[in-house]
Amino acid sequence: MEIKKLISQTDYLLPEKLEGLHAQSSGWLNTLAFWKDETRFFAKLLRTRNPGDSDKNTLIPVLENLEHLHQMLFDYLSEEILAHERLLSRIEMGETGIADAEYRDTHRKLGTRMLEFENDFRKLKKTVFEHARHW
After folding, report:
1. Which residues in 44-71 are b (16+ Cβ under 10 Å) and which e?
2. Residue 81, exposed/middle/buried by CB under 10 A (0-12, 13-18, 19+)?
3. What is the domain partition of the chain in residue ranges?
4. Residue 91 to residues 9, 37, 95: CA-CA distances in angstroms?
């Protein structure tokens, strides 16, 4: 008997039901919407603060990073998840030529990207909080 070692929280011994994967995708969309709102709040907070000359050198890259996150990652990742959900709908409707394994593989990759993005977003928040702490 072969023993599988779990490497991360996205690895499972048994395949998860499609309903569970759908719930996870919905959760990702809610999380992205929340992060998008947080990003707008942070950008507004940082813009309303009149930084001194010493702060400008570090504050401007943070603002640019916030804008980059807002435009590229949130919207792009949300659209990928929505496309992923549309594929699930086609699978559940019994459309031929669509593999369940393909959906699961894409889901695993999206989960990995969400974890990576969460780590990056936490670093950004830490930077924003550092600036706010010194005001």
Report:
1. eebeeeebeeebeeebeebeebbeebbe
2. buried
3. 18-133
4. 25, 32, 6
Record the pTM.
0.74
Cα distance between residue 135 and residue 127, in whole Å: 13
State the Cα–Cα distance between residues 112 and 116, nearest whole angstrom. 6
The 10s digit of each residue's pLDDT in 79-96 is 999 999 999 988 888 888
Amino acid at 77: L
For residues 77 and 83, give the distance between their C-alpha atoms in angstroms, rounded to a whole number. 10
Q: Show the tokens assigned to 117.
A: 């993005």
Place of tokens 């010194």: 134
pLDDT digits (tens, 9 = 90+) for 30-57: 999 998 888 888 877 777 766 565 555 6
